Amino acid sequence: MQTSIRLVTITLVLATGLVLVPDGRAEELSRAAMLSASCEGCHGTYGRSPGAIPPIAGKSADYLRETMESFRSGDREGTVMGRHVRGYTEEEIRLIAEYFSQQSEQ
Q1: Half-sphere exposure of 42 (CA within 13 A, CB side)
Q2: Which residue blocks in the chain are alpha helix, DSSP H?
């Protein structure tokens, strides 16, 4: 019974949150989270890398965008980043940068 009440409460909170957010913004958040999921394979969940790969959570959106653009242009070298970022449009890079800039470092 407790689990049912919690599930209903969580569902209502999430549904209410989606109703209060304008449709376009809710879609953009989902797209940003989806695009960022591939980054989490190396940079850690929410960009909080526990290992040798640099963490990206909480970095400024401008810094992240400029870094990704440097990898894409070849001005900055990396093992896989250049290949990954070439597959994204400028808008997708902006969405990814904004997503990780909004994540807490801890």
Answers
A1: 11
A2: 2-20, 23-37, 40-43, 61-73, 81-85, 90-101
Query: How far apart are the C-alpha atoms of 36 and 56, rounded to whole Å?
Result: 11
CA end-to-end span of the chain: 33
Q: Is the dihedral of CA 85, 88, 90, 95 positive or negative?
A: negative
Name the pTM for this structure: 0.72
Give the domains, in start order, of the chain with CATH numbers. Answer: 25-101 (1.10.760.10)
Which residue matches tokens 């980054």?
39
pLDDT for 89-101, tens place per residue? Answer: 999 999 999 999 9
